[in-house]
Amino acid sequence: WIGLSVRMSFDRQGISSVQAIARDVTERHELERLKDEFIAVASHELRSPLTSIRAALSLLDGGLLESRPERAKETIALASRNAERLMRLVNEMLDLERLESGSEVLDRMPYELAEVMGQAAETVAAAAEAADVLLIVRPTTLTACIDPDRMLRVLVNLLSNAVKFSPRGGCVWVAAEKGPQGGVVLSVRDQGRGIPAGQLKSVFGRFRQVRASDSRDKGGTGLGLAICKSIVEQHGGEIWAESREGEGSTFRIRLPR
Ligand code: ADP
Predict the structure, then answer these.
(1) How do residues 142-189 score in pLDDT, each as one tens digit?
(2) How far apart are CA 249 and CA 242, in angstroms?
(3) Contact 172, 188 (CB under 8 A)
(4) 126, 157, 200, 249: which sits with the fewest CB atoms below 10 Å from its CB?
(5) Interface ipTM > 0.95
(6) How far does the centroid of ligand 1 lie from the alpha carbon of residue 222, in Å?
(7) For ligand 1, is residue 187 a contact (CB within 6 Å)?
(8) 89: Cβ below 6 Å to ligand 1?
């Protein structure tokens, strides 16, 4: 709030009103700073796949197809993987923006949790099989008032992360239990590498990944958990992670009654 010309008077009301203006301006500066930071990180994230696509095109333009057809095939495959990544990044950034701007309202209805848990498990079944991970859906008769499509997206994100970070032969569980005051708690547990204690909160931030190599090796964008958090908070709920490094992680979602 530098640059604000205010005269502080020492009666009680005066001071509180000066403080109110100051807080408002500070919050606006913080929002602007976060927006600038987001744009800087987002453009960096978008630039790397684009650079790789451009390099591939320039190699092909230089006659790679004729001189080394096998190498050209690999180059095309790499460019196509990067184009897919670009698409995923743009789609997830737009989804997050739409969710956070509040332009889309939830379509909530009483829903069987077993149903959405089963659908989520089906969606990641092929990936789990390829990674040799056993998916276990714990039976439940609980219901909750949710937007089924959005909650499906949350569970699919959590389950695909759990599969991605599991060792071969590992298990992933998805379960629902009664929560406090008539609410429910959904959980997704894995036996993977775990998350360091200092990063249990920050992994829900945009473009946050525990290891810099996670986007390359695991194909992630670092936006999945930020999307989950936004959807869960729109439901009036809370999401958090618990973990023991080297033993696994559990992501929990508490939904109010
Ligand atoms: P990504 O697309 O990279 O998976 P997310 O926002 O879903 O993005 O996750 C952010 C990061 O949190 C991941 O890159 C990874 O470092 C860490 N993470 C998420 N889920 C798990 C998990 N089940 N086990 C270990 N690390 C995880």
Answers:
(1) 999 999 999 999 999 999 999 999 999 999 999 999 998 889 999 999
(2) 6
(3) yes
(4) 126
(5) yes
(6) 7
(7) no
(8) no
